[in-house]
Amino acid sequence: MEDLFYHKKLLRQEIKKRKALQSKEEYFSASANILSKIELLPEYQKAEIILAYWSIEGEVYTHDFIRTWSQRKHLLLPSVNGDTMLIKKYENDNHLISGDLYGIPEPDGPEFTEYELIDFVIVPGVAFDRNNNRMGRGKAYYDKFLRNLTAYKCGICFDFQLVDEVPSDENDISMDIVITD
Fold this sequence. Notes:
This protein is an alpha/beta fold. It has helices at residues 2-20, 24-40, 42-46, 63-69, 141-146; strands at 49-51, 74-81, 84-89, 96-98, 105-107, 120-123, 127-129, 134-135, 152-156, 162-163, 177-179. The longest helix has 19 residues, at 2-20. It starts with a helix and ends with a strand.
């Protein structure tokens, strides 16, 4: 177990170095390319309720995607409460508040609890591998939440975040697909 944490730490450091080399232009262009690929997926096209995420620095940029698609589909975003990830409906930017724990904007409305209705999940990650395994930031918010979710899970990342193998164990949830630029 100690080796697993050590290898994850090293991979997180390596990805952080690679992100630092990415220009703003490359960042926005690659993000747009990734999200346009999602829009072409049959699973996304038929989905009505989508769980996305409000991107922070270094993650695939999702703000414009969320704004656009919230006009046509039901968009949900995570909200962190202690060690738990809650889900809330995105209405528009006016209903975003600064999250308590990390300051990540999150919806201010009531919790969405009908998880079985979620059709498609867009999942960020520090790194993914060719077997669709995911490595997050280390708090396991997504792993805990996705464990019992039947929705189609789509990991998204930049090309340099896709590696041959992500250190993982039985607690890590794999994706149905990983999309890169």
